[in-house]
Amino acid sequence: VLIEHYSxxxxxxxxxVQAMVLPISERHGEYARxxxxxxxxxxxxxxLDDRNEKLNSRIRDAQLQKVPFMLVVGDREAExxxxxxxxxxxxxxxxxxxxxFIPWVRQLIDTRAVTW
Amino acid sequence: xxxxxxxxxxxxxxEFPKGITALEVAKSIGPRxxxxxxxxxxxxxxxxxxxxxxxSGPLQFITPSSPxxxxxxxxxxxxxxxxxxxxxxxxxxxxVGPPTEAGFYYDFYREKPFAEEDLAKIEAKMxxxxxxxxxYERVYYPKEEGLKLFNEMGEFLKCExxxxxxxxxxxxxxxxxxxxxxxGPHIPSTGRIKAVKLLSVAGAYWKGDEHSHPLQRIYGTxxxxxxxxDGYLHYLEEAKKRDHRRLGKDLELFSIQDDAGPGLIxxxxxxxxIRKEIEDWLRAxxxxxxxxxxxxxHAMRLHLWETSGHTNFYRENMFGAMEVEKDNYQLKxxxxxxxxxxxxxxxRSYRELPLRMAELGTVYRYERSGVLHGLxxxxxxxxxxxxxxxxxxxxxxxxxxxxxxxFAVLKTFGFDRYEVDLSARxxxxxxxxxxxxxxxxxxxGALRNTLKRMNVPHKYMPGEAVFYGPKIDIKLVDAIxxxxxxxxxxxxxxxxxxxxxxxxxxxxxxxxxxxVHRALLVRxxxxxxx
Lengths: 116, 530
Description:
The complex is a heterodimer.
Chain A: H1 2-6, E1 19-23, H2 29-41, E2 46-48, H3 55-64, E3 69-73, H4 75-80, E4 82-87, E5 91-97, H5 98-110
Parallel strand pairs in A: 1-2, 1-3
Antiparallel strand pairs in A: 3-4, 4-5
Chain B: E1 3-7, E2 13-17, H1 22-29, H2 31-36, E3 39-42, E4 45-47, E5 57-62, H3 69-88, E6 93-94, E7 104-109, H4 116-131, E8 137-142, H5 143-152, H6 156-165, E9 169-175, E10 178-181, E11 195-205, E12 214-223, H7 226-242, H8 244-250, E13 254-256, E14 265-267, H9 269-288, E15 292-293, E16 299-301, H10 302-308, H11 310-313, E17 322-324, E18 327-331, H12 336-343, E19 355-364, E20 380-390, H13 395-412, E21 417-424, H14 437-453, E22 459-462, E23 471-477, E24 483-492, H15 495-498, E25 503-504, E26 510-511, E27 514-520
Parallel strand pairs in B: 1-5, 15-19, 21-22
Antiparallel strand pairs in B: 1-2, 3-4, 3-5, 6-7, 7-12, 8-9, 9-10, 11-12, 13-14, 16-18, 17-18, 19-20, 20-27, 21-23, 23-24, 24-27, 25-26
Helix pairs in contact in B: 3-4, 5-6, 13-14
């Protein structure tokens, strides 16, 4: 019933994968792994998709899996210690410092937010 | 010619010549009513508009806005379907074709299966026949003569029905080439059918018996307007997109495997984590609400289920017993007897009550393979099952706590609509029920008072209770308006007696505790759940 009610797009606390880290190219692998590690230590279910595929097709895959947040990281993000947030429902949501994104997601999980 | 006096729903009484048809009466009232009327109700009986009125009495017209209107319209649509099929496929033999909650179907016996393209052809023919505005002509046959006729037509399925069910003189309806043994009523003519759509074709068996003739069942639906039909088709499309069986596969949440058997669920890592999250939340919530968590075995002696009475009233939903060391064991279809054994493990005092025992209990229930459906109808599932043992004085507050718990669930999972049903006894037949009149009064009173005090709108359904006690069902309404059972708060006057449950009251005397089953079916995260 829940699967059908949410049409598979579960709220963050229930989503099997809560965030997907997507490095733009191989060069950004190191920063991507940092982001991945920090989210994982914060107890967020996070995956890293650094397959040798175009960014757009990796975004599409994460979208199909209904992952609530896709975090795109490139030069600018690595430089500023931010993540470019893409929501599964409304798309591009701008850049946020990693230090702000983590507590925000934590809060969505802890309060079992249905919308955000 | 003598007259008849007809009483209308608004109380007006008018005189008409005896034998006038309902349609003529409608015409005398106004052309709009005559155009809208589908059928009539004379003295409580549903009849065709063409029926003559022979006696004085009440008359009411069935229109699209009447509760019976859509059912009659869809029944007539089913006849239209059969008429179209017989035009195109003379080798098809009609079985039965009733209206359903969402439309109608007609079963046919035909050696060659109907293909998808056939459905489109049949539908086009239906539209053509609707345009031709064929009447639904009611005819009568003496049983023998009728049988002979249907026999000559080769309609062996209809003959079987006539043999079994027909009165000495029976009615039939003729629509184009299609003649059906049918009680009716029907709409006046096919031209009334404005929005009809065939949906699918599936296998069925004559009389639902898998050893009998295999049939092909064509499903369709009909509405009074194209707009309503479009709305329904859009809803079907949405429901298909959301089908959990498809999402479960695409998102790798769960599977059902042939090697393991139908109706048994494998939760894959992604579904497993969802289940874990729900169970963690649920356990924390249960503890915070004063429940105790217990675990009970999955298989227990058959004897226990004889004591509880399940081998009588629940037998058909139980797996067969298995023999272990010459003793019979039963996979549990319910958790109650296990919790009762914990209650009974020692003497209980009124000071310990209420005792609320909860278990995310996995139960196994036999369901025919034909009715299994993804996660929704399964043979093994886990539900948040709790049993509350309390004193009569504690009843209302316990019921209220259960209802509040259910609302907390709705809120947590983002449902904002719900429906509540209260099922009570049929007071005329107390002999059907376990427990005394006083107990039923107390329990039904507690359920009603609680809902009233909490201002919860609900539907009161006398006669709907099961034999062992009244209950409240809370159903949630999902994102596309379907309702699903969420929780049941069910009294039980049967098990405490059968197991001789007691507690020592403040008066130092033994008393029988009140037992309440509380199952949160939905998010039990088992398979009935997510």
